[in-house]
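hey can u check if this looks right to u? its 211 residues, i copy pasted from the old doc so theres a chance i mangled smth
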Amino acid sequence: GESKLKILDAGCGTGLLAKKLGKYGDVVGLDLSDDALSFARKRGVKVKKGSISMLPFKTNEFDVLISIDVINHLWVKDELKAFREFYRVLKPGGLLIMRVSANPWLRLKHDEHVLISHRYSKDELKRSLNKAKFKILKLSFVNLILLPPAALISLLERLIPGPEKRSGVGKNPVPVNWLLKTGLGWEKYYLKYADLPLGLGLIAVGRKPLS
């Protein structure tokens, strides 16, 4: 039979994405949080505890490494070291798929709640990938439709410092959910062919060269 892809979800949280990735190959989820890992285990995800700055895996072990909104987390002390670790554990020809928060000028209360240490500029992400020796296949903004409301919220938060710090993680009312679904659906289609000029996040696809 055909050998399955070996996939690492670096910073898997409660294992939602790792579970979905299971149909593409053998997935391992990595996280530092015991609570998150126990949720992931309940979902039937194979997990390992560890830090992305010191991955507990052999060199050249994975075909694909996915890291969503993790590298700019407060727990990650040395981001470049994490990029180099991603490179190390990927097989030659292996793919890195990652998303980070974008726009250093945008500071949201929500960032503090979800422990985002900083937001990347496109150039900064490009430099980090290059330093770690990745060949960049795609580098684009994502979540364009979310940017105007987020910029507005950021401005309001600066003007009106409220006593309570509310995170933006709650349930979205129905029209917002519909907007996100159609907006992000349109964006997914668009991203196949072009790059978005701005957005709340950055997505990068990098390849570890064969030699």
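DSSP finds seven helices and seven strands in the chain.
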